[in-house]
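Lab notebook, bench 4. The sequencing result for the construct came back, and we need a structural model before the next group meeting so we can plan mutations. Quick request posted to the team channel:

Model the 3D structure of this chain.
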Amino acid sequence: MSKKRMHNKVKKKLFGLFTGEWFAALMFAVLWVLYLYLLEGFEVYLTSAPSLYAFVMLEWILLQGGYYWFLKWRQVRSNSFSNLPDHQLRLFAFFKKSNMFLIAIGMLVLIYQCYVFAADFYWFLFLFSFAVIEHINYYHIRLSYMSVEEIKELLGQKGLRRSLLAKELKKYHGRLKGKRGAS
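Done. Here's the predicted structure in token form:
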């Protein structure tokens, strides 16, 4: 495959990833509002504090993912295939920490939900799990495999791979430790 064709393929894939994440976030919000207004009886699920919390957390993580892929797309568009600059990785390190804080609060809400077993328990559990899986997919282990080759590789016992963002953050933290050690 020619270099230009490969470049266009990567650019197209990254464009699809960032627009897909942002479109999903937008459509989830639109559907949430539509269900609230159109489907009688869903209010208890959609307006409870735990469900709203999990939904906002999911949206927050989807927006982060879309932003990451947008930045990578913008890099490839300008013919750069390197890691993100440190100031952008610092932002994603902050996002990761904020997500962990939100997940910890969500775990407390989950424990509470198990104790009271409210009507929205399963809806909250679904949304919260979805958000946690998205966080893992971006900041730890790549869970989404799109191409047939990637699925065959996974089934061929090569195992799960670290996400691209996780690899970039690891290098960034390594550089930070190196700078601190040199001081």
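The helical segments are 3-38, 43-46, 49-77, 86-116, 121-139, 148-158, 164-182.
Will bring this to the meeting.
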